[in-house]
Specification:
Blueprint: E1 4-9, H1 13-26, E2 48-55, H2 65-68, E3 90-92, H3 101-104, H4 122-131, E4 136-139, H5 146-159, E5 162-165, H6 175-184, E6 187-189, H7 199-212, E7 216-226, H8 229-234, H9 241-252, E8 264-271, E9 278-289, E10 293-304, H10 305-325, E11 330-331, H11 333-339, H12 349-363
Parallel strand pairs: 1-2, 1-4, 2-3, 4-5, 5-6, 6-11, 7-8
Antiparallel strand pairs: 7-9, 9-10
The structure holds 6-O-phosphono-beta-D-glucopyranose.
Pfam family, one: Inos-1-P_synth
Protein name: Inositol-3-phosphate synthase
Family: Belongs to the myo-inositol 1-phosphate synthase family.
Length: 365
């Protein structure tokens, strides 16, 4: 199998976990533990190589990706200390609204923004994608980066590179963008990555269970706290809107009956700096069961957010490459439904898992 060349936009915690994972699995340790697929349609994690990367933070720009992933403000757990140099240097990106809160507003770090460093133009990004023979572009910009995500989506379209939209900005699920990818012959998977065993999938599976067992879900909340830049960004409500829509729709879409807005509260709830990349989710579900008798369920989930995302990203990359190999274009619906919170077409996670397996089997033929 040939290699899969990926480019990364936004060398934050999620990118750090992904790149660490590529080394972790390359070293042969724990071959398959923590993966949904070791061999996905003939592609293994060891086939993935980072060939281009963009960021806008001086602490990362100019460094090899293997070093930039450990630069501040990244704070995720280091589970692979020795990541060999990739030979790929982080380039200055295009800023627009793709700037994290800690750099834009109440900010000690503004100086780290590369004043004087020329921003990458669209032509330069497209040329770099072509020169490096990038197969898949991973969008890891901060939540709320609408314009910047659209800029890189445009670059992917022009370069004919598959686009994986990990963030809650609506591109794969937006009919106009979906149509543009279809017409350009370019596959896209998105929107908003659903963590391996995160708040969304747990909440969805339990909501589906209520539906299947005939228990009427009356009220629910999902409160999340964390201390990474994602949570810091989301303390700015302007950047939060699409994230709340994405997370809420992910749960509403599997409920037997849509809950009234007053009875569902799902969102990032608070920024707790000392938590760093540890995310804690508090979940409550209230229902009515046999005989109209009430019940409730409470759950607390504690996860390291970024490895939890990387465990899914490693499969999205390979599905995007399989789609590209097969000449598929536009949103890849099975993969988007299984791996993302806000796909164009929602499915239960059981059906989505089955649809992904079928997609892999057909795509690999
Ligand atoms: O735990 P959930 O609800 O699946 O959400 C997790 C993911 O949500 C994404 O929006 C974040 O950018 C990721 O950092 C995170 O891993």
């Amino acid at each position: 199998m040939p290699a899969i060349n990926i480019a990364i936009v936004g060398v934050g915690n999620c990118a750090s976990s992904l790149v660490q994972g590529l080394s972790y699995y390359r070293e042969g340790a724990n071959d398959t533990v923590g993966l949904m697929h070791w061999d996905l349609g003939g592609y293994k994690p060891t086939d993935i190589h980072v060939v281009a990367a963009w960021d806008i933070d001086q602490r990362k720009v100019g460094k090899d990706v293997a070093e930039a992933i450990f630069a501040k403000p990244n704070c995720t757990t280091v589970f692979c200390e020795t990541v060999p140099l990739t030979g790929t240097k982080v380039q200055m990106g295009h800023v627009l609204d793709g700037v994290a809160e800690h750099m834009s507003e109440y900010d000690d770090h503004r100086t780290f923004l590369l004043a004087g460093e020329k921003e990458a133009s669209k032509a330069e990004v497209v040329a770099a994608l072509r020169e490096t023979k990038t197969d898949v572009l991973m969008n890891y910009l901060p939540v709320g980066s609408q314009a910047a995500s659209e800029f890189y989506a445009e670059c992917a379209l022009e370069a004919g590179v598959a686009f994986v939209n990990n963030i809650p900005v609506f591109i794969a699920s937006d009919p106009i963008w979906a149509d543009r990818f279809t017409k350009a012959g370019v596959p896209i998977i998105g929107d908003d990555i659903k963590a391996q065993l995160g708040a969304t999938i747990v909440h969805r599976v339990l909501t589906d269970l209520f539906a299947k067992r005939g228990v009427k879900l009356e009220r629910t909340y999902q409160l999340n706290t964390g201390g990474n830049t994602d949570f810091l960004n989301m303390s700015n409500h302007r950047r939060l809107a699409s994230k709340k829509i994405s997370k809420t729709e992910a749960v509403q879409s599997v409920a037997a009956e849509r809950l009234h807005d007053d009875n569902v509260h799902i969102g990032p709830s608070d920024y707790v700096p000392w938590q760093n990349d540890n995310k804690i989710c508090f979940l409550r579900m209230e229902g009515t069961m046999f005989g109209g008798v009430p019940m409730n369920l409470e759950l607390r989930l504690s996860v390291e957010d970024s490895p939890n995302s990387a465990g899914v990203a490693i499969d999205m990359i390979r599905c995007a490459k399989l789609a590209k190999d097969r000449g598929l274009a536009g949103p890849i619906d099975a993969a988007s439904a299984y791996f993302c919170k806000h796909p164009r077409i929602q499915m239960t996670d059981d059906l989505a898992a089955q649809a992904v397996d079928e997609f892999i089997a057909v795509a690999a033929e």
